[in-house]
Protein backbone atom coordinates (compact mmCIF):
# COMPACT_ATOMS: atom_id res chain seq x y z
CA UNK A 1 0.00 0.00 0.00
CA UNK A 2 2.86 2.32 0.88
CA UNK A 3 4.48 1.57 -2.44
CA UNK A 4 1.22 2.42 -4.13
CA UNK A 5 1.05 5.65 -2.23
CA UNK A 6 4.58 6.62 -3.15
CA UNK A 7 4.37 5.48 -6.80
CA UNK A 8 0.73 6.08 -7.63
CA UNK A 9 0.03 8.85 -9.97
CA UNK A 10 -2.98 9.77 -7.84
CA UNK A 11 -0.91 10.25 -4.57
CA UNK A 12 1.35 13.12 -3.57
CA UNK A 13 4.46 11.29 -4.31
CA UNK A 14 7.60 10.79 -2.21
CA UNK A 15 8.55 14.42 -2.08
CA UNK A 16 5.03 15.48 -1.11
CA UNK A 17 4.89 12.86 1.58
CA UNK A 18 8.22 13.96 3.02
CA UNK A 19 7.16 17.55 2.99
CA UNK A 20 3.97 16.60 4.77
CA UNK A 21 5.92 14.76 7.44
CA UNK A 22 8.28 17.71 7.91
CA UNK A 23 5.37 20.12 8.33
CA UNK A 24 3.64 17.74 10.76
CA UNK A 25 6.80 17.37 12.84
CA UNK A 26 7.30 21.16 12.84
CA UNK A 27 3.81 21.83 14.13
CA UNK A 28 4.19 19.09 16.71
CA UNK A 29 7.41 20.61 18.00
CA UNK A 30 5.88 24.04 18.09
CA UNK A 31 2.97 22.64 20.08
CA UNK A 32 5.30 21.00 22.59
CA UNK A 33 7.32 24.20 22.79
CA UNK A 34 4.19 26.22 23.62
CA UNK A 35 2.59 23.91 26.15
CA UNK A 36 5.77 22.63 27.83
CA UNK A 37 6.33 24.67 31.08
CA UNK A 38 9.47 22.76 32.10
CA UNK A 39 11.68 23.68 29.18
CA UNK A 40 14.54 26.17 29.13
CA UNK A 41 12.33 28.96 27.72
CA UNK A 42 9.58 28.81 30.43
CA UNK A 43 9.75 32.54 31.37
CA UNK A 44 9.16 33.61 27.79
CA UNK A 45 6.52 31.05 26.94
CA UNK A 46 2.84 32.01 26.65
CA UNK A 47 1.93 29.42 29.28
CA UNK A 48 4.37 31.04 31.70
CA UNK A 49 2.97 34.44 31.01
CA UNK A 50 -0.56 33.16 31.45
CA UNK A 51 0.43 31.50 34.72
CA UNK A 52 2.08 34.70 35.97
CA UNK A 53 -0.98 36.69 34.96
CA UNK A 54 -3.20 34.27 36.83
CA UNK A 55 -1.01 34.61 39.93
CA UNK A 56 -1.11 38.39 39.60
CA UNK A 57 -4.89 38.26 39.20
CA UNK A 58 -5.20 36.08 42.33
CA UNK A 59 -2.94 38.49 44.24
CA UNK A 60 -4.99 41.47 43.03
CA UNK A 61 -8.21 39.70 43.97
CA UNK A 62 -6.83 39.12 47.47
CA UNK A 63 -5.87 42.78 47.67
CA UNK A 64 -9.35 43.75 46.49
CA UNK A 65 -10.91 41.51 49.14
CA UNK A 66 -8.62 42.98 51.81
CA UNK A 67 -9.32 46.57 50.85
CA UNK A 68 -13.04 45.87 50.57
CA UNK A 69 -12.98 44.47 54.10
CA UNK A 70 -10.91 47.44 55.26
CA UNK A 71 -13.38 49.83 53.60
CA UNK A 72 -16.32 48.08 55.27
CA UNK A 73 -14.56 48.16 58.65
CA UNK A 74 -13.72 51.86 58.17
CA UNK A 75 -17.30 52.67 57.25
CA UNK A 76 -18.57 50.76 60.28
CA UNK A 77 -16.18 52.62 62.55
CA UNK A 78 -17.11 55.91 60.93
CA UNK A 79 -20.79 55.17 61.45
CA UNK A 80 -20.11 54.09 65.04
CA UNK A 81 -18.25 57.33 65.64
CA UNK A 82 -21.11 59.30 64.08
CA UNK A 83 -23.62 57.33 66.18
CA UNK A 84 -21.55 57.94 69.30
CA UNK A 85 -21.48 61.66 68.54
CA UNK A 86 -25.27 61.61 68.08
CA UNK A 87 -25.69 59.75 71.36
CA UNK A 88 -23.44 62.25 73.13
CA UNK A 89 -25.47 65.13 71.69
CA UNK A 90 -28.70 63.45 72.79
CA UNK A 91 -27.29 62.83 76.26
CA UNK A 92 -26.21 66.46 76.55
CA UNK A 93 -29.66 67.57 75.37
CA UNK A 94 -31.28 65.16 77.82
CA UNK A 95 -29.27 66.67 80.68
CA UNK A 96 -30.32 70.13 79.52
CA UNK A 97 -33.96 68.99 79.39
CA UNK A 98 -33.64 67.49 82.87
CA UNK A 99 -32.18 70.73 84.23
CA UNK A 100 -34.90 72.72 82.50
CA UNK A 101 -37.49 70.34 83.97
CA UNK A 102 -36.04 70.82 87.45
CA UNK A 103 -36.22 74.57 87.03
CA UNK A 104 -39.81 74.32 85.80
CA UNK A 105 -40.76 72.10 88.75
CA UNK A 106 -39.15 74.56 91.16
CA UNK A 107 -40.95 77.44 89.47
CA UNK A 108 -44.29 75.64 89.57
CA UNK A 109 -43.77 74.72 93.21
CA UNK A 110 -42.99 78.35 93.99
CA UNK A 111 -46.11 79.48 92.14
CA UNK A 112 -48.23 76.89 93.96
CA UNK A 113 -46.79 78.01 97.29
CA UNK A 114 -47.46 81.65 96.40
CA UNK A 115 -51.02 80.82 95.36
CA UNK A 116 -51.61 78.89 98.58
CA UNK A 117 -50.28 81.81 100.58
CA UNK A 118 -52.49 84.18 98.59
CA UNK A 119 -55.55 81.98 99.26
CA UNK A 120 -54.79 81.83 102.97
CA UNK A 121 -54.21 85.58 103.05
CA UNK A 122 -57.53 86.13 101.28
CA UNK A 123 -59.37 83.88 103.75
CA UNK A 124 -57.75 85.66 106.66
CA UNK A 125 -58.60 89.06 105.21
CA UNK A 126 -62.18 87.95 104.59
CA UNK A 127 -62.60 86.81 108.20
CA UNK A 128 -61.25 90.11 109.50
CA UNK A 129 -63.38 92.27 107.23
CA UNK A 130 -66.58 90.26 107.65
CA UNK A 131 -66.30 90.13 111.44
CA UNK A 132 -65.61 93.86 111.63
CA UNK A 133 -68.48 94.61 109.27
CA UNK A 134 -70.88 92.61 111.43
CA UNK A 135 -70.38 94.87 114.48
CA UNK A 136 -73.56 96.88 114.99
CA UNK A 137 -75.61 94.66 112.68
CA UNK A 138 -79.13 93.95 113.92
CA UNK A 139 -80.83 90.57 113.72
CA UNK A 140 -84.51 89.98 114.38
CA UNK A 141 -83.63 86.70 116.11
CA UNK A 142 -81.53 83.57 115.93
CA UNK A 143 -81.61 80.17 117.59
CA UNK A 144 -78.54 78.32 118.84
CA UNK A 145 -77.91 74.67 118.04
CA UNK A 146 -78.91 73.77 121.58
CA UNK A 147 -82.32 75.41 120.95
CA UNK A 148 -82.03 78.75 122.79
CA UNK A 149 -83.55 81.70 120.94
CA UNK A 150 -82.42 85.35 121.21
CA UNK A 151 -84.57 88.21 119.91
CA UNK A 152 -83.80 91.78 118.87
CA UNK A 153 -80.12 91.03 118.60
CA UNK A 154 -77.36 93.60 118.01
CA UNK A 155 -73.90 92.16 117.33
CA UNK A 156 -71.20 93.72 119.53
CA UNK A 157 -68.13 91.63 118.69
CA UNK A 158 -67.14 88.54 116.72
CA UNK A 159 -63.93 87.02 118.08
CA UNK A 160 -62.15 83.83 116.96
CA UNK A 161 -64.14 81.72 119.44
CA UNK A 162 -67.49 83.46 120.05
CA UNK A 163 -70.01 86.09 119.03
CA UNK A 164 -71.00 88.67 121.66
CA UNK A 165 -74.22 90.63 121.32
CA UNK A 166 -77.02 92.43 123.09
CA UNK A 167 -80.64 91.28 122.97
CA UNK A 168 -83.99 92.22 124.48
CA UNK A 169 -83.06 90.59 127.79
CA UNK A 170 -79.49 91.89 128.15
CA UNK A 171 -76.04 90.93 126.88
CA UNK A 172 -74.74 87.49 126.01
CA UNK A 173 -72.06 85.60 124.19
CA UNK A 174 -72.42 82.37 122.22
CA UNK A 175 -69.58 79.98 121.49
CA UNK A 176 -68.94 79.54 117.77
CA UNK A 177 -69.95 75.86 117.87
CA UNK A 178 -73.41 76.88 119.17
CA UNK A 179 -74.08 79.44 116.42
CA UNK A 180 -76.56 78.53 113.66
CA UNK A 181 -75.07 77.34 110.38
CA UNK A 182 -75.57 80.62 108.50
CA UNK A 183 -73.61 82.65 111.08
CA UNK A 184 -71.04 79.91 111.51
CA UNK A 185 -70.34 79.78 107.76
CA UNK A 186 -70.42 83.54 107.37
CA UNK A 187 -67.74 84.26 109.98
CA UNK A 188 -65.52 81.33 108.94
CA UNK A 189 -64.50 80.14 112.40
CA UNK A 190 -61.37 77.99 112.64
CA UNK A 191 -61.05 75.47 115.42
CA UNK A 192 -57.32 76.03 115.91
CA UNK A 193 -57.74 79.83 116.19
CA UNK A 194 -60.60 79.40 118.63
CA UNK A 195 -58.66 76.97 120.80
CA UNK A 196 -55.63 79.27 120.80
CA UNK A 197 -57.77 82.27 121.82
CA UNK A 198 -59.52 80.28 124.52
CA UNK A 199 -56.19 78.96 125.79
CA UNK A 200 -54.82 82.47 126.02
CA UNK A 201 -57.96 83.66 127.75
CA UNK A 202 -57.94 80.73 130.14
CA UNK A 203 -54.31 81.29 130.92
CA UNK A 204 -55.00 84.90 131.77
CA UNK A 205 -57.98 83.83 133.88
CA UNK A 206 -55.92 81.24 135.71
CA UNK A 207 -53.31 83.83 136.46
CA UNK A 208 -55.82 86.31 137.86
CA UNK A 209 -58.46 83.98 139.35
CA UNK A 210 -57.10 84.49 142.89
CA UNK A 211 -58.50 87.97 142.96
CA UNK A 212 -60.92 90.19 141.16
CA UNK A 213 -58.32 92.86 140.63
CA UNK A 214 -55.85 90.44 139.12
CA UNK A 215 -58.57 89.14 136.84
CA UNK A 216 -59.56 92.64 135.80
CA UNK A 217 -55.99 93.68 135.06
CA UNK A 218 -55.24 90.46 133.21
CA UNK A 219 -58.34 90.92 131.09
CA UNK A 220 -57.31 94.49 130.32
CA UNK A 221 -53.90 93.23 129.21
CA UNK A 222 -55.43 90.46 127.12
CA UNK A 223 -57.91 92.83 125.47
CA UNK A 224 -55.18 95.28 124.57
CA UNK A 225 -52.92 92.58 123.22
CA UNK A 226 -55.79 91.29 121.11
CA UNK A 227 -56.35 94.80 119.77
CA UNK A 228 -52.64 95.17 119.07
CA UNK A 229 -52.68 91.87 117.19
CA UNK A 230 -55.79 92.93 115.29
CA UNK A 231 -54.20 96.25 114.37
CA UNK A 232 -51.06 94.50 113.15
CA UNK A 233 -53.14 92.23 110.96
CA UNK A 234 -54.97 95.25 109.58
CA UNK A 235 -51.67 97.04 108.94
CA UNK A 236 -50.33 94.00 107.08
CA UNK A 237 -53.53 93.79 105.04
CA UNK A 238 -53.41 97.49 104.17
CA UNK A 239 -49.76 97.26 103.18
CA UNK A 240 -50.47 94.34 100.88
CA UNK A 241 -53.36 96.26 99.35
CA UNK A 242 -51.12 99.29 98.81
CA UNK A 243 -48.59 97.11 96.99
CA UNK A 244 -51.31 95.64 94.78
CA UNK A 245 -52.73 99.05 93.98
CA UNK A 246 -49.32 100.51 93.21
CA UNK A 247 -48.75 97.64 90.80
CA UNK A 248 -52.18 98.29 89.25
CA UNK A 249 -51.34 101.98 88.87
CA UNK A 250 -48.07 101.17 87.12
CA UNK A 251 -49.86 98.79 84.75
CA UNK A 252 -52.56 101.39 84.24
CA UNK A 253 -50.03 104.06 83.29
CA UNK A 254 -48.59 101.73 80.66
CA UNK A 255 -52.08 100.98 79.36
CA UNK A 256 -52.94 104.70 79.26
CA UNK A 257 -49.82 105.53 77.27
CA UNK A 258 -50.50 102.65 74.88
CA UNK A 259 -54.12 103.70 74.37
CA UNK A 260 -53.14 107.35 73.81
CA UNK A 261 -50.51 106.34 71.27
CA UNK A 262 -53.01 104.19 69.38
CA UNK A 263 -55.62 106.96 69.48
CA UNK A 264 -53.09 109.44 68.10
CA UNK A 265 -52.14 106.98 65.39
CA UNK A 266 -55.76 106.45 64.35
CA UNK A 267 -56.42 110.20 64.27
CA UNK A 268 -53.36 110.73 62.11
CA UNK A 269 -54.64 108.08 59.71
CA UNK A 270 -58.01 109.79 59.68
CA UNK A 271 -56.44 113.17 59.03
CA UNK A 272 -54.44 111.63 56.17
CA UNK A 273 -57.64 110.60 54.45
CA UNK A 274 -57.98 107.10 55.78
CA UNK A 275 -61.60 106.74 56.74
CA UNK A 276 -63.48 103.68 57.83
CA UNK A 277 -63.06 102.73 61.49
CA UNK A 278 -60.04 104.93 62.24
CA UNK A 279 -61.96 107.72 64.01
CA UNK A 280 -64.12 105.30 66.00
CA UNK A 281 -61.00 103.34 66.89
CA UNK A 282 -59.34 106.52 68.13
CA UNK A 283 -62.35 107.37 70.29
CA UNK A 284 -62.43 103.83 71.63
CA UNK A 285 -58.76 104.06 72.67
CA UNK A 286 -59.37 107.45 74.27
CA UNK A 287 -62.27 106.03 76.31
CA UNK A 288 -60.02 103.17 77.30
CA UNK A 289 -57.35 105.59 78.49
CA UNK A 290 -59.97 107.57 80.48
CA UNK A 291 -61.15 104.36 82.13
CA UNK A 292 -57.61 103.52 83.24
CA UNK A 293 -57.16 107.07 84.54
CA UNK A 294 -60.31 106.72 86.67
CA UNK A 295 -59.09 103.37 87.98
CA UNK A 296 -55.75 104.87 88.86
CA UNK A 297 -57.43 107.78 90.64
CA UNK A 298 -59.51 105.33 92.69
CA UNK A 299 -56.40 103.25 93.43
CA UNK A 300 -54.47 106.32 94.58
CA UNK A 301 -57.39 107.33 96.80
CA UNK A 302 -57.45 103.88 98.36
CA UNK A 303 -53.67 103.96 98.86
CA UNK A 304 -53.98 107.31 100.62
CA UNK A 305 -56.78 105.98 102.83
CA UNK A 306 -54.80 102.86 103.70
CA UNK A 307 -51.74 104.90 104.59
CA UNK A 308 -53.82 107.00 106.95
CA UNK A 309 -55.25 103.83 108.45
CA UNK A 310 -51.75 102.40 108.89
CA UNK A 311 -50.59 105.59 110.60
CA UNK A 312 -53.63 105.59 112.88
CA UNK A 313 -53.30 101.88 113.75
CA UNK A 314 -49.58 102.30 114.43
CA UNK A 315 -50.29 105.19 116.78
CA UNK A 316 -53.00 103.18 118.55
CA UNK A 317 -50.64 100.25 118.97
CA UNK A 318 -48.02 102.45 120.60
CA UNK A 319 -50.63 103.65 123.07
CA UNK A 320 -51.93 100.12 123.68
CA UNK A 321 -48.42 98.76 124.21
CA UNK A 322 -47.78 101.52 126.75
CA UNK A 323 -51.00 100.58 128.57
CA UNK A 324 -50.03 96.90 128.54
CA UNK A 325 -46.72 97.79 130.18
CA UNK A 326 -48.54 99.84 132.80
CA UNK A 327 -51.03 97.06 133.58
CA UNK A 328 -48.21 94.53 133.69
CA UNK A 329 -46.42 96.60 136.34
CA UNK A 330 -49.64 96.84 138.35
CA UNK A 331 -50.13 93.08 138.13
CA UNK A 332 -46.59 92.44 139.38
CA UNK A 333 -47.29 94.72 142.37
CA UNK A 334 -50.30 92.55 143.30
CA UNK A 335 -48.24 89.33 143.35
UniProtKB/TrEMBL annotation:
State the organism named in the record: Oceaniferula marina
Task: Mark the transmembrane ranges.
Answer: 12-35
* Regions annotated as coiled coil: 77-132, 228-262
The protein's name in its UniProt record: Uncharacterized protein
Q: Write the record's keywords in alphabetical order, separated by commas.
A: Coiled coil, Membrane, Transmembrane, Transmembrane helix
Amino acid sequence: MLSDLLTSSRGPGVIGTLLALIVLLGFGGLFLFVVDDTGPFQGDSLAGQIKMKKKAIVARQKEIVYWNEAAVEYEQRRQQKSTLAQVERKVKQAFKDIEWGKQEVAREQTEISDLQKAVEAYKKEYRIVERERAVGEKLESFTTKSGKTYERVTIKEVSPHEMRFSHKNGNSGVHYEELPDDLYDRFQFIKEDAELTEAKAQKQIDISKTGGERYRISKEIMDRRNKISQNKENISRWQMEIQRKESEIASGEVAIQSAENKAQHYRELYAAGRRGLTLDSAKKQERKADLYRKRNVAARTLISTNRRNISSATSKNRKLESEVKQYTRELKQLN
